[in-house]
Amino acid sequence: MALAPERPFELINCDLSDDLAPGEVLVRIEACGICHTDLAVKLQHIPVPLPKILGHEGAGVIERVGPGVVGLAEGDNVLMSFGSCGACGQCQLGAPGYCDEFGMINLFGQRRGGSGLRYRGVELGGYFFAQSAFATHAIATARNVVKIGKDLPLALLAPMGCGIQTGAGAVLNVLSPRPGASIAVFGVGAVGMAAIMAAKLAGCSTIVAVDIRAERLAGARDIGATHTVDGRTPDLAKAVAALGSVRGVDHSLDTTGVPEVVAASIACLRQRGSSAQVAAPPRGTRFPVEASVLVGGGLTVRGVVEGDAVPTIFLPRLVDFFRQGRLPLDRIVSFYPFEKINQAVEDMETGATVKPVLRMN
């Protein structure tokens, strides 16, 4: 449970309702990845009321299904992703990441009948991303769980529900690089590493990884980066652009949300290049973009939520890549027992690990 920005996560015993609404499922959590969005809420960079049970990269086994659920059954292994209403215009257009109720469902945990969690008789904030998977059990919906084969490693695939989906989706679904294209990825934590894997899958011939940590850059080369650049390099945009084929790179992706890095991720593009922005920096953050660069270059700059993915379509695609040995998640995931959650957070923040995943058992 996240109690306050300055306090560590605490493990508590609380009660979870037995009542499932239509379309809901009860999942026994086997593992859950830790994402920077969890920490952004805990630190109140995203002002969601605390205390709250966080966690939104859950993976587990369905223990019970509610009324009206089809295609899912008790005993199914599932990955958990973000929630969406299914009824608004964006959902109907196949863009659930831009659901009209995205904030209320995912950040504020809006659920008919309350969160379903109670601590010492008082309702506790939960249903985060329609799951709250820093727990042994969670209530989710048929819309935000994806059934996978029982032969697959649930714990290893848990981060697919958000971080991997975000990085890979931003490349494959939004930037859509042609074979032989060039791309620069700014910030190679878990999302950036997923973007590099996806760029390799797409056939990019030049894949530039940018970071300030030497060990991250080495890891990026290990999974497909062809070039690395220290993020502290003077005139960063020029240094990256020089690695492209003609006056810059075709595509870029920024995962940092740091204004000067975002500016570099745009300025390094060639004419008519495109950039995807996936970070969620503190509210009020502004990105400095020179008009002559943006307009004169005919550039496209897109904000991207959850990789523009429809989880029930995109996650099976990622699973197929994993089965083929083309999505080497084992090279970026580190496992921690649930009770070591604060150590896992510290290791992620210091860069000691790329993607921490908590095992609940």
Structure overview:
- By secondary structure, the chain is of the alpha/beta class.
- The chain is built from 12 helices and 16 strands.
- It has helices spanning 36-42, 89-92, 102-107, 154-157, 163-175, 190-202, 214-223, 236-241, 259-267, 291-296, 311-323, 341-350, and strands at 15-16, 24-33, 58-65, 77-80, 117-119, 122-123, 137-141, 145-148, 182-186, 206-211, 227-230, 249-254, 269-277, 300-303, 333-337, 355-359.
- α5 packs parallel to α6 (190-202).
What is the count of β-strands? 16
Give the terminus-to-terminus CA distance. 18 Å
User: Would you list the SSEs in sequence order as H and E?
Assistant: EEHEEHHEEEEHHEHEHEHEHEHEHEHE
As a percent range, the share of helical residues equals: 25-40%
Principal-axis shape equals globular
Q: What percentage of the residues does DSSP assign to strands (E)?
A: 15-25%
- Summed over residues and divided by their number, the pLDDT gives a mean of 96
**Low-pLDDT residue intervals, each spanning 5 or more residues:** none
Class per helix and strand makeup:
alpha/beta
Number of helices: 12
Task: Report the sheet with the most strands, covering strand number, pairing sense and barrel closure.
Answer: 7 strands, mixed
**Rg from C-alpha positions?**
20 Å
Oligomer: single chain
